[in-house]
Specification:
Layout (H helix, E strand, L loop, with lengths): L3 E6 L3 H12 L4 E7 L3 H11 L4 E2 L2 H5 L6 E4 L6 H10 L3 E5 L6 H14 L3 E4 L6 H11 L6 E9 L13 H4 L3 H16 L3 E9 L4 E2 L2 E2 L5 E8 L5 E7 L12 E8 L2 E6 L5 E6 L6 E4 L26 H12 L7 H20 L3 E2 L5
């Protein structure tokens, strides 16, 4: 089988940090083309990768005959048009989250990809954290019994620093909701199931960041009910939690309590879980078993590198493997669209101060 030609659209930091190291683990894939609207960023990426097929228009990249699959790492408002253009050319698509500006766009992407028979994947990166992967396994195999409570808390301190297009509504759609809480919405679906209805609140504490106007929320919370479980859900995320810091070392906490036990995940300790069973007097820390330290089929050595970052490479391995094996990606656009439906409901709830039903992709 010939190598899968990969084109990257949007050559910023997330590509250098996550996708290039991930693709380097995939002998079945070869990076063949790059696209960015910023010529300086494009030139830097070309120099870094040695790829000379470079474009400033994504339509030129998706038309490139050597490109079989694309990775989309651009501002949110461009995700749907780029993905749909790639799908129309028969390209497989890995798209950063949130995959669209609203549920209607996301569903259109999902339907188009399914009809075209191409692989499609949402970059819910934190599914690939070993501790989260193991946590999901334990829930699904009955360790906690019937779930009672789901809660997640993502606290960072970005201060007054500008966050570029992520603080502009027409470019991002939502602020902290799409940027960080979308991942935790996916946690909830993964561990408990689809969210049926919710009530949400948002706040913008800073109208200006480094002299640049911001018209999006920097804090959000959701109280959720699930479709197939009586469990409650509480999700919170903030960019203005003073003193919490940024990135993988800041607070990223997820807990599920059930009839028979509890599980606690913290991103800063990606190779451990805290667990308790009914009758225990407290939580105990357990290491993630060897078989969960990397994604199934990944050639990555889980004992090499910073474990707070190296798990991210496995999502590209999953994308390429799904193409080779002609099977659905995990997670796909379906999960991306369902998260978007929750986000849409949260926006409406915060605006109208009421409970809102969440649409389903069926």
């Amino acid at each position: 089988m010939k190598q899968i030609g990969v084109g990257i659209i949007g050559c910023g930091g997330i590509v250098l940090q996550n996708h290039l190291p991930g693709l380097a683990l995939c002998p079945e894939a070869k990076l063949v083309a790059l696209c960015d609207t910023n010529p300086a960023v494009l030139q830097s990426a070309s120099h870094h990768t040695g790829v000379t097929a470079t474009f400033t228009n994504y339509l030129d990249l998706v038309a490139h005959p050597g490109v079989d699959a694309v990775i989309i790492a651009t501002p949110n408002f461009t995700h749907a048009p780029i993905a749909l253009a790639a799908i129309a050319k028969g390209k497989h698509v890995l798209c950063e989250k949130p995959i669209a500006m609203n549920f209607a766009e996301a569903k259109t992407m999902f339907d188009a990809a399914e009809k075209a028979g191409v692989r499609h994947m949402t970059a819910f990166t934190y599914r690939f954290v070993p501790a989260m992967h193991y946590m999901s396994h334990l829930v699904k195999t009955g360790f906690i019994g019937e779930p009672y409570h789901f809660r997640s808390c993502r606290l960072q301190d970005w201060g007054t620093r500008a966050v570029g297009w992520r603080q502009v509504a027409k470019l991002a759609g939502t602020g902290e909701l799409g940027d960080m809480l979308s991942h935790r919405i996916d946690y909830a679906r993964l561990l408990v199931g689809p969210i049926k209805r919710l009530v949400a609140d948002t706040r913008r504490f800073l109208d200006v960041r480094d002299g640049q106007p911001s018209d999006l929320e920097d804090w959000v919370t959701i109280l959720a009910e699930f479709s197939n479980s009586p469990a409650t859900g509480v999700l919170e995320s903030s960019k203005v939690a003073t003193g919490r810091g940024e990135g993988a070392r800041s607070q990223d906490y997820c807990e599920v309590n059930g009839r028979e036990g509890s599980l606690v995940f913290q991103l800063e300790r990606p190779l451990e879980l805290q667990i308790a069973k009914r009758g225990d007097t407290g939580l105990r820390t357990v290491p993630v078993p060897e078989e969960f330290l990397k994604w199934p089929g990944s050639p990555r050595d889980p004992h090499v590198g910073d474990s707070a970052f190296t798990f991210r490479y496995d999502q590209d391995v999953e994308f390429i493997q799904a193409i080779v094996q002609q099977r659905p990606c995990v997670p796909s656009f379906r999960e991306g669209a369902q998260a978007q439906a929750v986000m849409d409901a949260a926006v409406l709830s915060a605006l109208e101060k009421r409970w809102v039903e969440v649409e389903s992709i069926n």
